Each structure stands twice: as C-alpha cells, then as structure tokens.
Amino acid sequence: MRYIRQRSFLLLLLPALLAGFLLAACNDDPTPVGSTYLPQNVEFRSYTLKQGDFEVTTGISAASNSTAEGAQTVLVGKAAHGTVAQSLLAFTTADSIISGSAAKPVISATFTLRSAVYRYGDTASRKISFDVVVLDRVFSSNEKWSDALSASVDAAPALGTFTGTYNDTTAITVNLDPAATQKFLQEYFTYDSVAGLRALRTLKTIALRAHDNTGMVASFIGAIGGLDTLRPALNIKVADTTIILRAGTSAWIASNDIPVGGKNFIIGAGIPVRALINLNIDSIPDVATIHKAELILHMDTANSSFGSAGTPNFLATYIATDTSFAPLSYLKGGTSGLIPVDRIAQDSVKFTNIFRMTNLAPTISSWLHNRRGTGGLKNQGLILAFNRSGNHPNYEAATVDRVAFFGPDAADPALRPSLTIIYSVQVDAKK
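Given the sequence above, the corresponding structure tokens read:
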C-alpha cells in the first residue's frame, strides 16, 4: 500500500515540476533559431529584360492532329487567311459479307459523321461542303500537311458529296455511290501473317476533301476510343443486312498563311504553329537565388482570329530541350513539363488582352544551375503554343484558331513582351 501511495504522489507532483521548468525557461532570453544560417549580406534585386534580350521565332511544330496524339476530332473546310483543313480516316476492321471473295453486292451505302460543335470562318452561315474520297495510300500517326499529300487528296476519286447545314447536335449522312464503295471495300485492306497470326493491314484510306464555296471549317468527332457509336462510319446495305464499319484511326491536316517574323508573332492551332521565345538572362548572376519570374505577353487582337470556341483563356509553354530541334520532334517540347500561361481577368466576367506566365522561377533557376556547371537545363528558350494538355480544352488539335502577340519590336514599348525577375545574392558574391 505504501508503494502505491508513493507512486500516486509522484504522479501528482510531475505536472507541477514540468510547469516549473517551463516557467523558468520563459524567463530566458529568446534564441534566434536559424540565425547562424542566415547570411547578413543578402541583397534582393529586380531585373526586367531589355528589348534586345528577347528573340522570337515561329515555326511549324512536328506535333500532329492524329488519334495517336490525343486528337479526338477531325476538321474539314476552307476559310479566311488561306485556312484549309482536310480529314483523314482509316478503317482497321473488315467483314466477310462486304469484303473478300464471298462478298455480297452493295445495294446502298452511306457515310455518317457526328458534329463536334466547333466552327471557324463564316460561322453564321453554317454551310459546309466536302467530298468523301478514296486515298490510294495510308497516313502515319504523325501525319503533317505536305504539298504531295494535298495533291493526293485533290486528285482522289470521290465516293460521295455533302453540301448542307452544319448542326451542333445531330449527325450528317453522306450518300455514297454503291459501285465505287464496293470497289473500295474490296481494296482497302489485306491480311498479312504476323508472328504466325493473320493481321489486317490497311492499304487505302478515306479523306474528307473540302470545297471552297462555304468559307467555313467544321469539326466532327474522329476515331476516339470507347464510344464506338460516335465514330465516323460506313453503313453498307447488302441483301437484307446492314454492315457498319467504324473508323479505327483518324487525323487531320491543315494549312494557312501565318507569317514568320515581323513586329508581332502568331501561334496557330491545327497546323500547329508555335513560337520559340529565347530569353537572354546573362544579366542575372550565376549564383542568384530566383524568387519570382513573371513573363507578360500582350495579345494583338487585330491579327488574331478565333472560331466558335472564342478566345482561349489558357495557353501552354514547353521548356525547349535538345530534342525540340530535331526534325521529328521540332518544337514539340513536352518532355520537360508544361508551364501554364493564363489570360488575366478584368473582372468576374471579362478578360484582358494580357497573358501572364507567373511560375518561371524554377526554370530560370535550372538555367542558372546549368550555366555554373551544377546540372540543370541548358537555356534553349520556351515554346509557346495552344493547349493540348488534359487539364484544359485541347484548342491546338481541335481548332484552326490563331492568336497574335506584340513582339519585341512593337512600336509601342508598353506592348512588348516583358520578363521581370526578382532574385537575391550575397553582396560580395561574384558572377
């Protein structure tokens, strides 16, 4: 019993002892925690790049508008600024009822497409006109516009033609020539032996060839995964049976008259055209600690052009690396991450004509690390583009919009690109 009473007394005494220690500690002078690690000669500075510190060049990126690269739509039509869009579709399945030696004669055939809402050019008229043609070739997963491919589309034989009104909510149907369609069904594929198994290999594909009498580009749902009923489809009627072949892969190509150089620079979707912005940061010391870096770009509305999706409020910037200048990956970026470029809001419902990139500090820090030989990335510039990341609408692979910016040589200095860097250095540090 004595042991229990003594233990209880100690348990009651312990809180009082701890309180006494804490009160005694409160009477001590405060300790400047971390003060021994904080240099006493740190100086904060701000530097805004001068006009000659910017160099902007525009070019056609190697990024393509194919299903393989995430494009979910195809575009077709001709509009202002020399804009031309042509769709490419491939069928990767077959059916013995309509193909092969036992195929039945085609009684009728149609081609169906579902709209994807976007329109560009003379959007008020909603008039579209195009041919469904047979290409005697296949297209690759990174297909780009070329004069040779364009000539092939122009010279291709037509299965059918559509001229009518573009509707945002309903599918359109193109009537096809039965005999020409039957010929295509017999020739568009072959079976090859791959690792002992029979595999279908596509030989011919379908294109949508734009007419030039409507002044509008329209978008349709392509060969996206998952929702088979939305894919472009050949509907073939033989005897008392209707066979549906849905497109297995899709792409589209575009061309327009976006200029290179000049007092402003333009980025364009669809083609796509991207801008390489080189930044001379030699005035920033190698040993600087970057705290903030903000790039401001002013949109030139007079030379910009947007379709029914309106002006984007978000653009993308990729950090350029060695691979960004190789022919097959020119201006693609992507491997070093994506930096968002946001349009500054004017109020709760309106936006200004200013785009801002606020989180450049880590990139510039990495460039400085590389310059002083301690790793990091070589400063090869930033690639400005329409967005095609998953967090915002894919304007680049789903539109033919263009946005112009005032460049380093703009007549009004207030509209030129501006990069301000906030950094700190030890005042006795040498570059």
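The first helix runs from residue 2 to 26. Try to locate this feature in the token string yourself.
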